[in-house]
Amino acid sequence: MTMLASALGVVIVSIVGGLLMFIIMIAMVAALGSAGSSDTTVVRGNTFLTVDLSRISGDRTPSGLMMSLGEGKSTGLVDATRAIRAAATDDRISGIFLKDPGASALSWGSLTELRDAMAAFREVGKPVVAYSAGYSQGGYYVASLADRVCLHPAGMVDFRGMGAEVMYYKELLDKLGVEMQLIRPESCAYKSAGEVYTLTHMSAANREQIRAYISSIWRTATEQIAANRNLTTERLNAIADGLSGYLADDAKRSGLVDALCFEEDVRGVLKNQYAGKHLLPLDKYAANQKSALNAGKTTDRIALIYAEGNVVDGTSKGMGTAVYGDDIVRALRQASEDKNVKAIVLRVNSPGGQATASESMTHAVMQAREKKPVIVSMGDLAASAGYEMSCMAHCIVAQPTTITGSIGVFGTLPNVGKLMRQKLGLNTDTVSTNRNANGLTILRPLSPTAMAMMERNVEDFYKVFVGRVAEGRGMTYDAVHQIARGRVWTGADAKGIGLVDTLGGLDLAISIAAERAGIKDYSVKEYPKEKDTWTQLSELLGEPVDDDLNLLSRMRLAWRWNRHGKHLQPLTRMEQDLLYIAGSEGLQARLPFVLVAE
Question: What pTM was estimated for this model as a whole?
Fold first, then answer.
């Protein structure tokens, strides 16, 4: 009777679960259908393009499935900057209304690329007007190029210079009885990722590199702000030191903003002073531009391959948000074998990750460059494994505010034996056939032989990494080693030491690719190919990606529930990184942080 009841219960649960998944799929597809059923937006004359920085996220515009699960529509940086540059020559677009940039959480590389696109827009004589209830430093950096910078009368400008704050976990781990064993090359003192578990403060090397790169970014930002606001960098630093531009009245008095007003006042200025009769959201205009991007072009193509996120082995499933090694290898092979593709642009926006995936992708770049020009465009980050996959390209383009370098490797293995024994009352005993059969376990320290093997492993990979860079950049091993050792550089500094060829954004990288391929009229083909909605849903709701991952945990890899707004939101970069680190195995060539322009 019990067996029959249990079996019946399993059948009922399976039927209900299947019905629930089917209903979810139908609801999602219906939402996608209604979202995508609108006609192509008609752009009228005397229109101002509304650019809301809070609606720009990532390099690539999210798929319809991701947007249907999230909060409204968002535009990828690539589509956003492409639309802004197209608007410069569109007679229907009179100007740009840069709205609420203080809500942005973009990093410095993305902000620089966006600022460059709007600067090009202004160069043709079209105005940019900015307004916010409160500018973040990154938002103000973009807004400072505007013809008119407006602030809410009760708003603030967060202008105070750049700082870094690193959290260390050693004392917490000590209290829990956990010892983190850090393995890294002896010479890689700047590879600081594992230090947050083994130290209670910054090492001298880490403090040196952080001070260098935040100073470089701040110098770039203040020089550009000064040029647009008719101020000196010395004056800007004095304002930051005294917080004398923070409050609204002070911001206007110091010259950071032009006017204190409400949003309806700004809309009146757009209409009366600039003849801006209509406002058009950037995402709608960008969708129009993307649909018309390749119309009337020749068969010549430039492949644009996105490598954004943490570097991991394998292939994406469902709503994959990482740089999957197998996907990038396949994309490079497809692009290099396509006779219509004349050049390849690899867009790298990654802090690094698993060494095995990094090696596979680097090898694929080496094979592709034998057939066609390969140009790398670096975004916010192209560090560690992100730099290794870049170093073999024919040309590397980075923003001055890009974070790159970090040529190094590390490994970590926790020892939780004390936690198990003293805190949880759990004991283990062992039986083995060989001396090191239990030498690589988290329940006790690494054996001397195992530690020696791990140390040799990281040392060997570091030598391979440095050798790859030396070959790709045309430098000697010793010259690369001097600027490697896990050290982080900005794009501006990396250019001076030979890790980067030229400064600029994706637009410049594509132009260089076309020039090297000897083509003038071409279309852009994006890789990896986006999966259709049904494929994404079936992978998301179908068989588990791993035996220990169910539907909920897989969805949480990319999304979280917003209890206040009652909807799903994309995970923040920090949340994604924590999930990634928790599940990481093997050697890591990875940057330990993300620099956000708050």
Answer: 0.84
